[in-house]
Write a structure and sequence with these properties.
heterodimer, A: about 180 residues, mainly beta, ten-stranded antiparallel beta barrel, B: mainly beta, Lipocalin, 3 helices, globular
Amino acid sequence: MDRRGFLAAAAGTLLPRPAAARNPLDELLGVYVGTARVEDGEGRTVEQRDLDFTIEPFRRTGFRLRTISVSLVGGRRDVPGVTRREVEVVFVPSRGRPYYVEFRDQSVFRPREELQPMAGDPVRWAVVDAAGLHTFAFVLLEDGRFELQEAHREPIPEGLALRFLRNLDGVVVRRVIGRAVRVR
Amino acid sequence: MRGLLALFPILAGVVLGSWPARAEIARLVGRWAAETASGPVELRVEPAGRGTVVRLTRNGRALFDASFAPTDRPGVFEATATGLFAVLGRGRTAANPLEGEELLWAREAGDMLVVSRLAIASGKPAIDRARLERAGERVRLRLERLDGEGMVVELETELERAPR
């Protein structure tokens, strides 16, 4: 190695190395509370909801998304008729593909269950990019029509902007728009 | 003798299974074609065992090319294996869109047969479908694609019966 090569190599070891690219998922992990407005396909508000959701790591590379949704009655959550729904989905990276897929627990004590979309199994996946977290669920209904649900959680200065769509065979029949803040 | 001949379609239906139990698909059987501004469109619908082969091309490129068999759900059909998989006895493709495979299915909607496909392209859902309906001596075709929040119509045309 000549002197010039030696100097270049030495400089390479001394210079700070660029930080490894941050996973945009890291920026989204946390606990959030928020509110949302539910609209029908024509844009009419049909409901108000309180939301409480958590995005937490799962086995180093995946994440768990737990959502509690409370449908209010007359803007209140302490009166009869209020409903509460809790949903939890775990996603893990898809091998060789730029998205996450639903984690289907394959215990050694249980036979492997293949995803059967034709039998009505929901097909769930998620994308994490600079714009946020986007989750999708596709279901083939009994009569052969499809339902596609997509939820977008996008960072804003105050927390996350929320947008959810329920598409029934090509037509949006539900739209949920809201926002959430990160809490301790 | 004539009575026996009259019984033949019924017996054949019992022996062959449910195809073509649905009149909607049976009415589409044949070769159909149209010239459109974006090039030639050709549709072939042929019985194959218990199923039906649907091949739809546009400018010579296959948009849908699959064999569909009835499922447990009335009026709903799933794509079955073709080629080597069929020879090896793997009757169903068990397509998993999460593993990069295309999910193909068909359904009857009134007088219409709707052939659809789901694929996941770079994480986004890609849904295409062809609506096929007999309109007199022709077949009305509408190609749709999921774009944003809804389906957009890519092509609407009527196909005429073409020589085999």
